[in-house]
Structure formats: C-alpha cells, structure tokens
Hints:
Number of helices: 14
Strand content: 15-25%
Shape: globular
CATH architecture of the largest domain: 3-Layer(aba) Sandwich
CATH superfamily of the largest domain: Glycogen Phosphorylase B
Order of helices and strands: EHEEEHEHEHEHEHEHEHEEHEHEHEHHH
Mean pLDDT: 91
Low-confidence stretches: none
Distance between the termini: 18 Å
Number of domains: 2
Strand order of the largest sheet: 3-2-1-6-7-8-9
Radius of gyration: 20 Å
CATH class of the largest domain: Alpha Beta
Amino acid sequence: MRLLVVSNYYDNHVGGIEAVAGQLARRLVRRGVELTWAAAGPAAKGVPARPLRSLNVLERRLGLPFPICSPVDLALLLTQVRCYDVVHLHECLYLANQAVFAAARVSGTPVVVTQHVAPIPYRSRVARMSMALLARAAAPLVLGGADRCVFVSARVQGVYARFVRFRHPPQVIPNGVDLTLFHPVDEPTRAACRAALAADGRPIALFVGRFVEKKGIPWVRHLAGAFPGVRFLLAGAGPLDPCAWGLPNVAVLGPVEHARLPDLYRAADLLILPSFGEGFPLVVQEAMACGTPALVSEETAAGVAGFAEQAFASPLEPAALERAFATAVGAAAPARRAQVASWAAAHWDWERCTDAYLALLREVTAGGAAH
C-alpha cells in the first residue's frame, strides 16, 4: 500500500496534531506500509518525508498554527498525488490539505480524513468568525467528500455532524498512547523524578503544550497567581511568554523532547490543560498513563465517555477553576495514581489505534469505499 500522509507540521513542531500524525505514521511504516509524510517545516526523523518549504508568520504573530506553504513545493506534491493508493489528511481546514484533497478527487485517489479538533472559539471576534466561516466552507467539501472520515472523539464528530453530510458513516478512533514509554513507576522512582526537578516539597502542577490562548495559557497564569504555594512547570513554546508574568512559582522549561516527557509527568502532582476547541489532547492521555491526574475544561472532558470519573473538569470561569484546582492538586495519592494509570491503559494504546487505521486504509484501497 502506497500512502501519502499530509499534516500541517511535522512532529518536531510543538503541537498535538503533528504528534499524533508522527506516532501513527511510524507505526504504519513498521507494519509494512509504503508511506510518505508531507508537511511544513524541517523533515521528521524515522519516516519517509516530503517537506514543504513554508512561512510560519501566522503562528508567530497570532498564535494560529497555519503554515503558508511554498506554491512551488505544493504544486509539485499535487502532481504526485495520483502515484499513491490512498491519501490520509490530518485535518480539513489547512489550505495545503484542501489542495491535496482536490488533487486526489481529480485523480480518483481515495481520501481518508482524520478530524482532530472542532472550530476554535477564540476570544477575538475576528479570529472566531474567521475560523467558523472556514469550517463552514471547507468541512462540507473535504469531510463530506472524503471516502472515510475519522474523528478522535465523539464530541468533535457531533460538532461537524450538524452541517456535514458524510458519504459514509464516520468512525471515532481515539488517539493512542505508547504504553511502553508512558506508564506508572513505584514511589522511590517517582521521588527520583521529582528530585531531578529540584522538588522542594511543594505540589507540582504541570502544563505541556503551545503557549497560546487556545491551550488555556491565560488560565494557567490565573491559577499560578491564585496559588503561590504550588510550583507551576510549563513545558512548551509560543507567542504568549510566561516568563513575562513575573511569578516566582512559575518555571518555564521550554520545548521538551518526547522521550523526556514520561519522567516529567511522573514528577507532577497534576497536569493542567484548561484548553478549548480541542479534540482530545494527547498530553492528557500520556500524563494519565503515567498515573498523573489531569484538570481540563468541561468541554474537553466531554470528549471521552467515563473520563470525568477519572479526572477533574471545570468550567473556564475563575472561581470554579480555582475550586477544581484546589481539589485536584491534592489528589495525587499513590492509590489514586494507580487507578488513573490503569484506566488510561485500558482505553488508550497506539497498537490498537494503528490496527483500526490499518483496517480502514485496507478497506478503502480494496474498493470498499464508493468513489
């Protein structure tokens, strides 16, 4: 099977969609799929890549992860779409993905689309309206015209089902977790993880992600100011710089390599991700697989059945978020951590996720989809 995968960035960029695309691509390659991954930015390692030169001005200035790809590179990629048995697009809203979709329709190449997120309700009225209009224009064409659609959560599927008419019933395939990497450890090993971060006895609240409005960085700042007795560790990068907050209980770690994340999760007492407009964030899954409880928005929690019983959810409102945080940050007892890790391992695994995608891709290439 010759598979073309297209995403906005490679997974050397800080972001959940590209991290998922990378995890899945590498596993499909190991399963024998002849795969090429096209995206903006420096080529990924460990997978055949087709990098597209691009400008990243929208993310740098506005926090919007929409690369502007080189017209020359994109045009060359479009001429090669017909050489593949199937195209897998991660997201329908990116312009390069839409162009590849159009080329696939012309050449008769089957298309599978994974939709990770719903339209993002930015605070800015202009950004919010622009995102809504883009979704209303692109989703019916791309999601409605794809041979198969996959959603990472039932909540995201429900949003698009209101205005998209699918050619085939969509599937929900949750993202996986590498359980060989993300798993709980005994208390002495966890104590060593905390010692490596110079833990001083204070609870540790961890944020992992891009420093942008969508990920809830303004709410993290609010909590850090409201709880000076808690140490806040922030791993990531972005246009909203937490170093400018001037809060002594906040430490910015910068981007952290994926292989270093497990010990960071294990050291933390709580993962905080008060984001909105998400599908279901991979960092929440990884942290919980390590046994670390998570505090997320009610919107995010609604994406997975049973999740609210294992984690903490709050409306994005100051008093409610403070109450939820005060409860959650003290709930990291060993028994609780073991329960969280067990639930995560039972629900999220990359091998099961890869099995589901491989079966779907084989069905499409075998002619199971109506073209």
